[in-house]
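Lab notebook, bench 4. Still working through the backlog of constructs that have no structural model yet. Next entry is a single chain of 531 residues. Request: give me the structure tokens for it.
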Amino acid sequence: MLFTKTERSFADAIHRLAYANPFDEDEQTTVRRDLAAFDLGLAEEERNRPPIDNPVEFPFADEHARRVEALLLKLQSRLRARNTDLQQEEQERYEDLIVAAVYLRHFSSGNIVNTAAAGAERIPQFRDLHDDMKRWTDVPLTFSPFYTRPEHTFAVFFQYRFALALLESLIQGRSRPVARLRAAVWHSIFPRELRLYGSLLYERMHEVTTLILGPSGTGKELVATAIGLARFVEFDPKRERFVEPFAGAFHPINLSAMPRDLIESEMFGHVAGAFTGATKDRVGWFEKCKRGHTVFLDELGELAESVQVRLLRVLQNREFYRVGDVEPRRFDGRVVAATNRDLSDLIADGTFRADLYFRLCSDVIRTPTLREQLDASPGEIAPLVAHVAGRCLGEKALPEFVGRLTQSTLRWIGQSPSMGQAYGWPGNFRELEQCVRSVMVRGEYHPQPRHQGAGKSRQIEPITVEPSTLDRVVAEFRAGSLTLDEVIVRYCSLVHAQTGNVAETARRLKKHRVTVQSRIEPAWVERFQRR
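Model written out:
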């Protein structure tokens, strides 16, 4: 056997460290306790603390690195002295020790990531990693390219470290629901089998489509941004730099903000003469998206069926056609999609294709509401308000100004008769940001009456419609004197007059609120409500 019993136990603990999800609190608690069994100077409270405060910085990295490197030196001597081959599991444990030694020595802090993010022409730290990889693989074993190509190892480790930093900065909060969200996003970047990722899946993850579900204002685009930016980029060992910058690889498309007749052209492009006004060829987002880049389709539930068919072809065959063209084009990017609508309802209504959903459902992430986070961790409101206050005041703001705005906002939330600690935050983080801004500008924030309470749905009181106006519209309808557009506008305005709420109007009409709002005519709403 290559390992003694104690060495094997330590190697097993390092294996769990190397392959655990850094944002999974249960996995990280197990890792801490396993490693604490080996006397590395961990205090009792450190051993038993369940969640890690900051997974970006692993505690006691130097002590772990020294212990791992000392064991690797012993194992190297034994490997050179023996003639028999190792069992596969023994070699894997030796490789795990190499991973841990190199990562803890070179990536336990953010120095390399900061150097690359600053746009450095060269990353000279690669030479040290290169030397370490050569040193630890100088044994009579057959290694995969992950270990024999230091530039590839460097690129994977950098992606890992960069992803940690992105998730920490983009997804704010320390509640249990947020921890679960980060853990879910992590696996959209790195599959659970990291060994397989480093040797094979790093160049195939763009084939995995991610679907993000959650109410408006819960950070779906931030989740998509983290997935899109935390991508694998090859490293050029001769020039000592990455082959392309990390920025510019994320292409968001808000489908609800586009006229429906332009969505196909925006997504897939068109050729000259494809339709009226197409005077020249146009390159769409799918064509602009290079290998490894990400197209983010926000408000996916708004896609017309004709576009759904085109998108299904992209996901099935990785190819698409420009509008009006017969030449197929290859798509090598990644698709991340999001919606705040219930796709099962849309499928039942026949407005969303079931076969498209089943192409999207292999990797699903659900974003928690702000109320869910506060229910799990009531004290979470203070750091979240502080984070928003810092953004509102800007980078130049002194800490005391941020603290003053934070306390003013928290005081208003706690004392306001329309809010209080049980307030439901129906607008989620978007509403929290507007609350902080309103307190900053006016010293107060008043949610709309329909948003009061603990976030439970409330029956909206209907507004009585003036009967004479309605009678005139009915008479016009019976006479056949209205155009189709006039019928739609007046009906949307009628329902809005009854509900007093665009969101409720959209729900009743089963159309997106943007579409409904564009069809509401204030003058007709006023006529319907006139006494």
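Notes after review: The two ends are 92 Å apart (CA to CA). The chain has a mean pLDDT of 86. Flag for follow-up if needed.
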